[in-house]
């Protein structure tokens, strides 16, 4: 036994002199951890190849020609408070069009990945994160969601209930959360009121209609292209965009309506004129989508109808606006948004359970 120990010690000493180190594994075999040469110097290991992912990138603000599918390095491992998500579904919204054209505030400089909402599986987590690998989540990221992997701060990540799939998660977490703010936080819709929803066939428009219908005895008026009328439910009075809908609404509601929600500033003055006293006009978009943001702002100022501030005071009416993106990323609204996300998820689950019974 003593002779065997001597031989091992001698062999280990030679390995150390040669710059090598060996450890014993569970099966009794030795395993070399660092390589050395006869001079005792360490050889450099070849660098691991950079892992890549596919991403939809805007190279310059403008038309579709500036949008490309490219291979990019995968994001770094999550840092403190971050999660890495493998995207299973990503949404396409009107904001993506405005982003591609550069018509949004606080955008990164091109090139960057597009996409504001996604849903998928947590692939890795950083420190101080309540989520774990394998969790199903949705996220609202300030661009970059049109990628196979997305690195997001947990402030903007929401764990999904079991019965919400990825596609529904993407639609709910952006369109319905946005619509909920418009309808209940800004317009403050109440029972027995009336609301006029322009472009009610779009993603946010449909969400507005469905949320308004959850309030008791609410009258919903809307506009949409005639080809989409058959698919729109729960709207009491529906008009084509091309019709003189303002005149028709005034005939039906000579005293006015309580709320107008519009994604376009083109008929601001006309729609403002539909409001009752204590009524509210809520703007959540812009019709000037074919120009730069600076040109759009100038065009809006020069061509749109003007409303005197004193007129609001004299007529007891309100004009409001809302941007979920600004509220979430620039105005520190992430805790409030999380509460609204949970409300929307709960509403969806309740409706789904009722339809299954």
Account of the protein in words:
The chain is 32% helix and 24% strand. By secondary structure, the chain is of the alpha/beta class. The chain is built from ten helices and 16 strands. The chain has a six-stranded parallel beta sheet. The relative contact order is 0.10.
CATH topology of the largest domain: Rossmann fold
Main structural class: alpha/beta
CATH architecture level-2 label of the largest domain: 3-Layer(aba) Sandwich
Instruction: Name the strands of the widest sheet in spatial order.
Output: 13-12-11-14-15-16
The H-and-E topology, N to C, reads as: HEEEEEHEEEEEHEHEEHEHEHHEHH
Shape: elongated
Q: What fraction of the residues are assigned to beta strands by DSSP? A: 15-25%
Tell me the number of strands: 16
CATH superfamily grouping of the largest domain = NAD(P)-binding Rossmann-like Domain
The structural domain count equals 2
Helicity range of the residues?
A: 25-40%
Given this structure, which CATH class of the largest domain is correct? Answer: Alpha Beta
Intertermini distance: 77 Å
Biggest beta sheet attributes:
6 strands, parallel
Radius of gyration: 29 Å
Average of the residue pLDDT scores: 85
Question: Please, how many helices?
Answer: 10
Sequence stretches where pLDDT stays below 50 over 5 or more residues: 1-36, 294-303
